[in-house]
Structures are given as structure tokens and as C-alpha cells.
Design brief:
The structure is a homodimer. By secondary structure, chain A is of the alpha/beta class. Chain A has two domains: about 270 residues, Alpha-Beta Barrel (TIM Barrel), CATH 3.20.20.105; about 120 residues, no CATH class. The first copy, chain A, contains 15 helices and 16 strands. Chain A has an eight-stranded parallel β-sheet. In chain A, strands 1-2-3 form a three-stranded antiparallel β-sheet. In chain A, a hairpin with a 4-residue loop joins β7 and β8. In chain A, α10 packs antiparallel against α15 and α14 crosses α15. The first copy, chain A, is globular, with a radius of gyration of 20 Å. Chain A starts with a strand and ends with a helix.
């Protein structure tokens, strides 16, 4: 299905947008989903620990699948033979595939890669096999996967890259975007461009303007989900990019899923987000709960997220705020017969107590991870639903302030 | 809920019975389920890798939960505070709890236990803690769990026990059954007795007659699911027990779930089965498929089941037959875009191909285990549904012969 974006209402005081993404198939069938939107991630053609029906019950729009992982296993040829990704994984809603770029730059064996004008040489993290990913190859794989939205292959420079490096990198990413567009042949699939440029206003502006000139069905702001990214830099990257993106195209901030970041970046004009965090947090026993906390102690980096499994409300830096979460392994929940959140409408909170989930997590029962994944995904989707209401009523700034105070 | 059994039709040529178990709550609410029946096992208050809705979709009747495991974690007091096992695990159908006896005898730390007239001293396999389980304690725990059917605490002697040992053991088990019955106080819960006696006709007859004299709501045939049990001995144990059990009470063969055994033991008058095998097989990548194969090669023991994860149709001895199964890890399924079984009505076979499940199992994705668990449980329940039809039409023997030829 091809995607278009309808801007329905712009918040009067901020850059926040309420809109719709409309997917239309070649035979005229339509699916519509509201934005702001959070996309659950189904890395290997499955949202970890969940059935498609369980994902559907969280009321998502698009889901994301990873080109890099599916290229390695099972291979795009097998997915194509299966009739495409939708049929393979039994998902009848829209699917966005990333370009594989982020994984090449973050997951390559020993983190070694050789970036040339032609593409990136690296070794598989699974078995050390030599691999070569180019802009053309990335698009070919995504064409074969038959997702609804494909992403251009971009370089994801580290957060520490200097301005000179970034300038060369942006130029190459623009050439790669053009090369990818030329070989994009799936008429049932949209193609998005990606804006890079670190936290620099001039670079973001330049990258945005030049990417828009190439002409894509939607635009992403990239290079903000590095492990050692500063939150301030993320907000700047968005703030310096969105003014130069067309109002009639959807805007996607890649790899961002912390609640406070969703709020801050919707304010700055982003429509769509994705992140593995809700399911990853769940597999470590964590449940997101409403609100954020201000912190005055030392900053913790986003990479802490990956390993933190102990205690209540251990969290990540969000400028001066951090998300709230509880870890269900904690003994304090052994006799807590209330849901994770009293006012949450998710399947987990409607049917199970913290005591039961604590029991499942302590026993390493898979269903505990399922229940927490459902809650965490629904938590982020509810947050986007609340933001939509606030924008419709021109009350986004009030919503944001209340959220930051909560 | 209390259970009664209605014998609706007895097969004209065999001992096979078609009937109903009727559960009635104190306030008169009724639930009815047909037999023969296979009960999925929810050891730790969850059927491994499945939601209650996914279990329900396999059309089960009763499910089983393990008293021993729930006693250790989270403890029966917490389950009671939660409002009982049904509410704790969000299961509104009937639940049977075993007595804990089998686990004490098979799982105790270092397999060491001290059997006295009072009860069994042993150490927790989780942390080495000293534990003491008595008939009274087992019933108290089950009363607190508030299952619909509680089982009497019995000794489960090893398959190698001699006749003299078994005779003493049966006498003790009878005294334990009487002690348990005396302290059974949950008016919303039925209590079943257990027949022991190894493969000996005189011992089984004696155990059955004496257990029935004590008077229970249903009867189980026990001591047949030992790792080193011969299949012949299992069939004998059933054959020598059921003639002495009342026709108006349900008969349950504990811990048996291989398809050929379900058929052989329904023939010998059993109504209800349970086994962890469908979910355990699934977690190792295996799917049950219709039919059995005769074997002429060396026997493999039931204990092989626990570790076999490789290849196609590695299986367990069933006298001269073994079950059929495929292992989805096998490379031959990488491009097999057909369901596990073409004529299976389960959620997995209706929506997913072997290629997709192969991919999930190769990537160690939890949803692969979920899909295989659904298929395997539904497989056994479909088998019981087919047996019901055959009995209703007085064609059980033909069904059995066709099954053995398949």
C-alpha cells in the first residue's frame, strides 16, 4: 500500500500536528491511522512475545520490521516466496521496514565496517560472514519484503562525529538516497528519505532541504537514537529539521520511544515514532507507569536501558526528566493485587494483578513477558492518543506541562 | 465448582466411554464438558507460552495446575489472597490440581526423600529448603488454591518397585487418602482418589476396590507416568483398575499424553488425560502430526522425550508404535509454505506456514513456541473429539485400528 499524509489540525501554540496516514492499495482499498503514532517493532517478523492479535489489541497503526535482520534470516527471497512480509507474519496492517543502515552501523561484527562510496562492507554478527550493503541492495531487499513503507539507506554517524565528518556523510547520504530512489520498483510501496546532520542547525537545514528536493513520500529525522546521544541534541536535531520538511508529508523520528521524548518531539512537529524499548523493558520485568520524575543526580545514558533490570524507577536521562517504571521482579509486588495502572485499559491491566505478573517473572514464565509487553506498548500508544486529543483542542502545551509535572 | 459425571454412551465392543463432566457452583451455575478429554497443563498457573484466550481457542475442558509448584511459588496463601487460582490466573473454566505427590517423588532435590507414615520429608529443588508434605498439608494447599478438583496425596513408587514394596505402599496410600478426605473442607471443590498397584492385576483390583470404598467424586489411575515405565505395564495398570471403578464417576489417567496411549487407554475405559508433552515438545521445536509409525528398532524410553530436539520423528516407544512428529528447526522446512497439517483447524495451521515457524524457532522467538504449543494441544484435543464421535457411533475399535494403521 502507498501512503499519503493529511494534516488535519496544527496546534496553535506549538509545532504539534494531528493528522492521518492513509494507505491505499493498487486496487483502491484504504486503511487510515491517526498521528501522532507509536509503531511497535517486530524486528524478526514478530513483535517479540506477542501474537498479531495481541499487537492489534493495543490499537497500533503501522508496525516496523528490520530489513537487516530479515535479510540475514530468513532472507528476503524466502519472504518474497511466502507472498511478502504481511502474509509471512500474518499481519494485515501496514508495515514499515528500515533500511538496515542503523543495524549495519550498530550491530556489525566487532563494530567494524568499511564505508565506501559504493556501500558498507561489514561482517554478520551471527556468523562472521562478509556482507556488503549498498543503497541499491537495501531497496531491493525492501522491495522483495514488500513492506508498505521503505526507508532510504543512510549513513548513521556516531554522536561523537565532528562537523566536517557529518558534512561529508550528509553528502554521501544524499547520493545514496538518490541511488536508492532510482532502483525503487515496488509500486505498492512508498519510499521515505532521511535527514541527518547531528545537532547542527545549518547541517540539518541543508540536509532537510536537499532531501526534500529529491522528493520522497515521507521524511524521517535520523541519527538521534545513538546509545550516547544527549537528549538536548535529539531535541535540537528535530527542531532544526522539521521547519524544512513539507507540511503535507508525514515525519518520522527513528528509534525514539521514551515517553518524555515522544512529548518533546511531537511538540517539535514529529508524527511517528518507533522503539524496541517497550518490549525490551518488558523482557527484563519492567512496566512503564504514567508520569516522569525530575532528576538532580548524575545522568544515566540511554545504554543503561538495556541492562537495568533491578528495582523501581531506575531510569534513563531525559534532559532533566526520566520516565517512571516499576520492575515486577521486585518483592514488594508479591502481594500487590492491583493492576500495573488502575486507569489503564490494556488487556494486562484489565485482567491481571501485579502479584500474578511478579509470580510469572520470578518463575521465568513467557506469559509474564507477554503481559508486560502488551502493557508497555499500549502505554506508549495511549500516550499518543492523549496527545492527539490535546492537539485537536489546541491544548498541547498544557498537556505537555501537566505531563512534565506528573 | 463440584464435579459429577454422566455416562452417555458406552462403546459396544470396547471399554471406551463417551460422557460429560458437569461442574456446578454453589450458586447453581453449570459448566459441561465432554469426555474423553485431554487437559492442558498450567504448571505454574500458566499454560507455558500461552494466554488463557489462546488456551481457550484449543477447545479444552479442564486445565491442570501443579500443587507442588504453586506451594513453592508463589505459595498457596498468596493465591488464596488473590481470590483463588481462577482469579489469580484469569481462567474461568474448571481447574484440577494434582496432589504434589508426583513432583515430590520425581523432583525432590537430589531425588532424596524420606517417606514416613506421617508424610514425606524432602528438600526443595529450587533452594534446598527442607520441606515436609503430608496428606493433610496437600489437601490444605489445594483447598486454599480453590481448584475445582483436588487429588488425594499418594505415594508414587518407582516402576522398579517389587510387589512387596507396592503392597505396603498401597496400604499407606489408602491411609493417606482417608486422612486427606477427613481434612478436605472446600465445599466448592471435588476430591478424587488414586488407584496404585503397578502392573499387577491383584494389586490394582485391591487398590481400586479399597479406594472406592472410601468414596470419592472421581478416580485416577496413578503410577503410570514414570520415566522408565513400560507401555505394556501402563496398559495393564489401566486394564486391571477400571473394571473396579464405578461407572458413574469419571476416570482420570495421570500424566499420559502420547496419542497412541490416549487411544489405547480410552479403549480401556479412561475419560481424562493430562500431560506436559504438547507444550514441552513445542518448546523444543516439535509439532505433532497425525498417525503413528510402527518401529522395529530399539526401544527408546519416555525420558528421551525430554531431551529430543533434533531431526524428524525422533520419538518414544509405544509398545510397537510411536507418535509422529516433525521438528521445525529442520532445514527442510525453510521454504515449506504449507501449514503443519493441511486439515488441522488450529489457529497455527489456519494462519502460519512451516517456513514462518521454522524462521521463528531458528531465531529463538517466543512466538514460535506459542504457535507450536497451540498446535500440539489442539492436536490432542482433536484426537479426543474424534474418539468421542467414534464411541457415539459404536465404531471405536475401527477408529483405533485405522489410527494404528495411519
Amino acid at each position: 500500500m502507498k501512503v499519503t499524509y493529511q494534516l488535519i489540525h496544527k496546534d496553535k501554540k506549538t509545532g504539534a500536528r494531528y493528522g492521518k496516514v492513509v494507505f491505499e492499495s493498487e486496487n483502491g482499498e484504504k486503511q487510515e491511522y491517526e498521528t501522532p503514532m507509536f509503531m511497535p517493532v517486530g524486528t524478526q517478523a514478530t513483535v517479540k512475545t506477542l501474537s498479531p492479535e495481541q499487537v492489534k489489541a493495543t490499537n497500533p497503526g503501522i508496525i516496523l520490521a528490520n530489513t537487516y535482520h530479515l535479510w540475514l534470516r530468513p532472507g528476503e527471497k524466502i519472504v518474497k516466496k511466502a507472498g511478502g512480509l504481511h502474509k509471512f507474519m500474518n499481519w494485515n496492517g501496514p508495515i514499515l521496514t528500515d533500511s538496515g543502515g542503523y543495524q549495519v552501523f550498530s550491530l556489525a561484527h566487532n563494530k567494524k565496517k568499511d564505508i565506501t562510496e559504493e556501500g558498507v562492507h561489514f561482517k554478520s554478527e551471527l556468523n562472521g560472514e562478509k556482507l556488503f550493503l549498498t543503497p541499491e541492495k537495501s531497496i531491493e531487499i525492501q522491495n522483495a519484503l514488500d513492506s508498505d513503507i521503505a526507508m532510504s539507506f543512510d549513513e548513521c554517524p556516531p554522536a561523537t562525529a565532528d562537523k566536517k565528518y557529518l558534512k561529508n556523510s550528509i553528502e554521501r547520504t544524499l547520493r545514496w538516497a538518490e541511488r536508492g530512489k532510482k532502483v525503487h520498483k515496488n509500486k505498492n510501496q512508498s519510499l521515505f528519505g532521511i535527514v541527518q546532520g547531528g545537532p547542527y542547525e545549518d547541517l540539518r537545514k541543508w540536509s532537510a532541504i536537499e532531501t526534500v528536493k529529491l522528493g520522497f513520500d515521507g521524511y524521517a529525522v535520523g541519527g538521534v537514537a545513538n546509545d550516547d546521544e544527549e537528549k538536548d541534541d535529539m531535541y535540537k536535531a528535530v527542531e532544526y529539521s522539521t521547519p524544512y520538511l513539507p507540511e503535507d508529508k508525514v515525519r518520522y523520528l527513528m528509534g525514539v520511544g521514551e515517553p518524555v521524548d515522544l512529548v518533546e518531539c511531537v511538540k517539535r512537529g514529529i508524527d511517528i515514532f518507533d522503539c524496541v524499548s517497550p518490549t525490551r523493558l518488558a523482557r527484563h520485568g519492567n512496566a512503564l507507569i504514567w508520569g516522569i520524575r525530575s532528576i538532580n543526580d548524575k545522568n544515566t545514558s540511554i545504554s543503561d536501558l538495556k541492562n537495568s533490570t533491578d528495582g523501581i524507577e531506575k531510569s534513563i536521562d531525559a534532559k532533566n526528566y526520566k520516565e517512571k517504571r516499576i520492575n515486577l521482579k521486585n518483592a514488594q509486588f508479591a502481594e500487590d493485587f492491583t493492576p500495573i495502572e488502575d486507569d489503564c485499559d490494556c488487556y494486562t491491566c484489565q485482567n491481571y494483578t501485579k502479584a500474578y505478573i511478579h509470580h510469572l517473572i520470578k518463575c521465568d514464565e513467557a506469559f509474564g513477558k507477554t503481559l508486560l509487553s502488551i502493557h508497555n506498548i499500549r502505554f506508549l500508544i495511549r500516550l499518543t492518543e492523549k496527545m492527539r486529543e490535546a492537539i485537536k483542542n489546541d491544548k498541547f502545551e498544557e498537556f505537555r506541562e501537566n505531563f512534565l509535572k506528573s
